Amino acid sequence: MENSYSPYSGFQVGAAVLTKEGSIFKGTNIENAAYSPTICAERVAIAKAVSEGHKEFAAIAVTAKNSEGEEVMASPCGVCRQVMSEFCQDDFQIFLEEKGEIKEYSLAQILPLRFVKEVL
Ligand SMILES: O=c1ccn([C@H]2C[C@H](O)[C@@H](CO)O2)c(=O)[nH]1
Ligand SMILES: [Zn+2]
């Protein structure tokens, strides 16, 4: 989160994804003047892991601060949920921090009726 590049929203996000083997990959949100190339912390963390050969994940934790520097909850956007869906099972755990309290969700809960395709 400290390395967040978010000059446009001021919303700093940090994500840490845990692989099934037990390694952790961290990511932050990286914004862009053209806005749409912005990439969320969750996808950066997952992309870093996949780039290093890890494709099986157990959990992700997400934390955020708004432009006022207050700790706020960041719930994964739809694009990130779909990227999680590519690599993770229904029981993939999502830990979100809300007002100092950590809440646990599953991928099936936050992305019901997800589109899955068999990889040939
Ligand atoms: O779960 C979330 C929600 C938002 N953002 C980023 C995208 C953008 O840079 C900023 C404001 O939406 O926060 C994330 O990285 N993860
Ligand atoms: Zn996202």
TrEMBL record:
InterPro entries: APOBEC/CMP_deaminase_Zn-bd, CMP_dCMP_dom, Cyt/Deoxycyt_deaminase, Cyt_deam_tetra, Cytidine_deaminase-like. Coiled coil: none annotated. It comes from the Bacteria. Its EC number is 3.5.4.5. It catalyses: 2'-deoxycytidine + H2O + H(+) = 2'-deoxyuridine + NH4(+); cytidine + H2O + H(+) = uridine + NH4(+). This enzyme scavenges exogenous and endogenous cytidine and 2'-deoxycytidine for UMP synthesis. This is Cytidine deaminase.
